[in-house]
Amino acid sequence: MREDGRSPRRLDARVRANETVGKDCLLLTLEVPEIARIIEPAQFLMLRGPEGRFPYLPRPFSVCDLVDDRGADGLLQVLYHVMGEGTEAMAGWREGETVSCLGPLGHPYTFPRGDFTPIFLAGGIGIAPFPLLARRLPVDPRKAILLFGARTADGLYGFERMREIGVQERLATDDGSAGRKGTAVDLLVELLETEPPENPVVFACGPTPMFKAAQAVVQRFGVPCQMSLEERMACGYGACVGCAQAISDPTAVEGWRYALICTEGPVFPAETILYARPSSGKESPACSVLEKGRDS
Ligand SMILES: Cc1cc2nc3c(=O)[nH]c(=O)nc-3n(C[C@H](O)[C@H](O)[C@H](O)COP(=O)(O)OP(=O)(O)OC[C@H]3O[C@@H](n4cnc5c(N)ncnc54)[C@H](O)[C@@H]3O)c2cc1C
Ligand code: FES
Fold first, then answer.
1. Which structural domain range is residue 250 located in?
2. Could you tell me if the CB of 287 is within 6 A of ligand 2?
3. What span, in angstroms and rounded, lies between the C-alpha atoms of 145 and 148?
4. pTM of the model
């Protein structure tokens, strides 16, 4: 546990707004000053609804943005996609209700020393942590480039906020209904091949297939990349061991080991993430105990 006043705390958070901002996508504004003042980009919260109401287990969400730049008004925002029963219940949270919030959890993205060109690689709701990250950049956000892909045009939500901050955007959709036909990773290849920025650093967030494709690309071009991984989480602080991810680790006996995404991540250097176990070549995703034990 950290002793610097930044340790995670379980707090009551008041719902200030919960508005639909896109197809199956809502922006939740919570009043929780203790966390708003210290949260860092890609750190996350475990959110659970009002006492006695479903879902009984909390769900993990990054903080998308703060209403006041430094959280002085105590308001933080979560951009979320309705995926299943938990997020469906969340969509019903009303202004004035009190929900349970544990955070801040996990480790944030980190910035390199000196000048660099930030590249945000977002797949779908993976855009969520980037507005806060863009606000905290140590370089001019107008240098930054958002490469944002979704299945269809109505999945491209949230990038207007990045535009307001000054970030340039390039969009892609699988069906070509907005932006280029293709994926966010296609946009990355195009950028690195045709107009490579100076000292690029990629910050990625999205689904596993995007991470796998991006990992190969950043390796090919020798570009540093941090990936904020997502996994089902029951506790968020290392107790349930439900969010294990294989990573390379030269100090481990076999050169790799499992890391808990909630406590060691969610951000990992791209080159450390192992999607196939080195010894077997078999797929090696999280050994999720939640597969069996989800709450109802
Ligand atoms: C660190 C972290 C930060 C996250 N930040 C955000 C965010 O800012 N906004 C947001 O919309 N979502 C975010 N997520 C994902 C979010 O937690 C899940 O979408 C949510 O828990 C789904 O709950 P549910 O009960 O609605 O869906 P369930 O009924 O549990 O699942 C519905 C479907 O979603 C899949 N699913 C469930 N959880 C995850 C997950 N963690 N990753 C990928 N697929 C999942 C299931 O396999 C299933 O197919 C984050 C996850 C993590 C680990
Ligand atoms: S979510 Fe419980 S150990 Fe990571």
1. 231-296
2. no
3. 9
4. 0.92
